[in-house]
Amino acid sequence: MLKTLPEEVEAFRDRAWRREPEARVDTAVEAEKLVESVGFSATMTDSRRPGPSLYVAVCGRRDAHMPRNVQKDPESSLTWVLKDELMRRGRVYYAKLGKNRATFVAPRLVPHFNALWGVARRDEAKTLSDDARSVLRVLRREWEMATSDLREASKVTERPRFTRALEELQRTLKVIPQEVLYEPWFTYIWALAEGRFGELLSRKVKRDEALREVARAYLEGAGMTLTGELAKVTGLSRVDAGRGNHALVKEGFAVRVETGVYRLADFEERLKSL
User: Fold this and answer.
1) Residue 157: what pLDDT?
2) Domains of the chain by range and CATH?
């Protein structure tokens, strides 16, 4: 069973995920281009976790490791600054999504992420927790609020409960952090996701199509995926990740190398064009 990637696949990822010094990301515009290119990207993960990452792209090397003292590390600091700027600009989707990981999503994939993880308004009462619905009710009335004000207005005053409610609302594509303030104190400004991405969130996408397109976006940047890799990166179940990859094989976009391992059908041609 294939457990490590061939060097030519790692080289392919170096180019696609900006893991090269000459292609590293250092501006918000470049960060947005990265997200548009790869479809979705983690924010602060390093080389120990697969998938595209803004932090790794800022470092411009495939072996980037997050240091213990991130406050004094210039690459970690720049990644944090770029994250804040992308959040403010609102040209790509940003929230804690699958497995509560801070994730950027290109606009073209927002309807597909919503089809997989979103909750329809008619299903909120039976799907969302009481605390999450309390926070959501306040935001639907006020539209945007700072963290402390939202906690007080929602009456979910215990910090752990409030944090879990916000994470739940982010995972289900209901709420996003749209601004962060550092003066006079640090706080996020929370808003309804539909305020910025309403048209995209209203698009109807079938679940099978969403699985296929999320798998396509990942494989286009990865070149090849190992067993369980797509599930680990996205938070999908292995069954759902497999369904997405199988759909790509069926249409001829991917080939199945062995059980759970998929490669771009035109990988060699793409590699030559790098």
Assistant:
1) 93
2) 16-105 (no CATH), 114-202 (1.10.10.10), 207-272 (1.10.10.10)
Confidence (pTM): 0.94
- Pairwise CA distance, residues 215 & 155, whole Å: 40
Q: Are 44 and 79 in contact (CB under 8 A)?
A: yes
Q: Which two tokens stand for residue 89?
A: 């600009």
148: pLDDT confidence band, cut at 50, 70 and 90?
very high
The CA R_g of the chain, rounded to the nearest whole Å, is 19
**Amino acid code (one letter) for 260:** G
For 71, 142, 148, 171, 176, the CA distances from 138, given in Å and listed in that order, are 34, 6, 13, 18, 14
List phi, psi (to 5°) of 258: -160, 180
Q: Which two tokens stand for residue 215?
A: 């798998």
User: Which residue type does 42 have?
Assistant: A
In this structure, the number of other CB atoms found within 10 A of the CB of residue 138 comes to 20
**In angstroms, what CA-CA distances link 213 with 31, 208, 219?**
21, 9, 10
Q: What is the pLDDT of residues 214-247, one digit of tens each?
A: 999 999 999 999 999 999 999 999 999 999 999 9
- pLDDT for res 183: 86
